[in-house]
Amino acid sequence: EGFLFATEGIYFKESFNEANYISFKEIDFISIIDNGKDCNSILHIMMKNNKIITITSTILNKTPLKKFLQQVIEILSNNTK
CATH top-level class for 2-79? Predict the structure, then answer.
């Protein structure tokens, strides 16, 4: 279980699940389902191809990850203008 941040995306693996890759450029929308403590919340990442990636790992606070991803998306969109 863990996360690897790369130049163009994130590789992550949660317990009992397959490893995944999220390309920063392919993220469309990010939301959090609040379950009390931030580490117990659920992060939904909607991709541009309509795939939804769900992160439930309790080793990670979801709000800082959401803010980080939103900042990366904003920087990338400003660089393409």
Answer: mainly beta
